[in-house]
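> tool_call: predict_assembly(chains=two)
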Amino acid sequence: MFQFTSEQFRVKVGLAEMLKGGVIMDVTNAEQAKIAEDAGATAVMALERVPADIRKEGGVARMANIGKMEEIMRTVTIPVMAKARIGHFMEARILQALGVDYIDESEVLTPADEEHHIDKNAFRVPFVCGARNLGEALRRIAEGAALIRTKGEAGSGNIVEAVRHIRTIVKEMKQLTVLGAEELVHQAKILQAPLELVEWVAHNGRLPVPNFSAGGIATPADAALVMQLGAEAVFVGSGIFKSSDPAARAKAVVQAAKNFDNADKLLEASRALGEAMPGLDIAKIPEAELLQTRGW
Amino acid sequence: MKKVGVLALQGDFEAHGAALARAGAEPVFVREAEQLRSLDGLVIPGGESTTMLKLLRYEGLSDPLREFARRKPVFGTCAGAILMAHAVSGPAQESLALMDIDVERNGYGRQIDSRVATIDPEPEFLERTAPGTLEAVFIRAPIIRRVDPGARVLARYQGDPVLVEQGRHLAATFHPELTSDGRVHALFLEKL
């Protein structure tokens, strides 16, 4: 059951509150983690390969190497997040035992269970999960996610899917706020989400947990765009370390997250950045290779 | 109505804005030095202190904040308290040195060690606000390792100071903005 007021849930959401207005960066080793921290990242996400490489190399993508994660945790003082496969509650339990600060039950890795997500309420460590729409977000929250992020299309360097997802979630929340009690019951069926959560969103006009954006952010302008659309912070995956000058780009995206409403400062942050990561046209990605359709 | 700034570089500044509004002040989200001029006080929120330090430097806000603190009250929570401290350890990093306290970052450990605790504030806190225990939300919280003898400890947890007042300034290692108890913000507003 949802326990928004339970101490454990408040502590989980509390850390997400502290990450607002910031940038969480994907890193694959301690050296990258240090670059991210020095640039002003609020947290790093440890994974074996960045999404662009997972896409290119294929194969099964799993939880990162323990030794690498330990090295990252020793190297930086900011929170360290790590990815577990969808439904792989044993990877999650190992990550909890390791002491990571947040677990991302992520569609970027190869799903371990094609029906069930992890029962996140059973963990003391908080979870973040991806969503493309409100129904998906609320199902993840019902399972215990303390933070939602858009899925976007990871590793694509293309912001269009993250924009679609944040706009969809925000629009669907707005629509709920004008519905009557009997209409909310019907919407809960359509959203395939618990009525109690649907009613909460209808009453408050927002998610009961922070709402961040991920999947395709490659430039300071991309970060500012999703924040304008309602995201409260951003995750940048391949966008930093697949660019030509990671340190400069990391700094610029951090500045963009703070100045997302100030075009003059965004212009300043966008100067002298070198090349952004190569981008992919979503329409040219074969259906079976889309990451965003993973998760149920 | 008192106008109170909330440093909005990064972190839970919106939660502080809401807490200040509930306590009867007008919150102003501060992103530029010029905004400091019209304020009666300033809150430095929770967040990542390393990120805030970098943005302070990038935006050229450190000196204006120190100058503001010479005239007006500042209240820091968690990362805010770290920025206000004289010396920071675990590891060492720069700070604004607005208060004569030393803090150790992530003093309790990682997120798994974050917690909600019920604490008994010192009698002085209760006299100046209202009776009752205080719910303290600690998120990867720092520990205050040294307090200037002239500073007043208003609450402790496990023997360590968690709410400290020195002159016009106030620092908490927990997050009163994440609870419905408005007494800590009310205490700060009393100082304006």
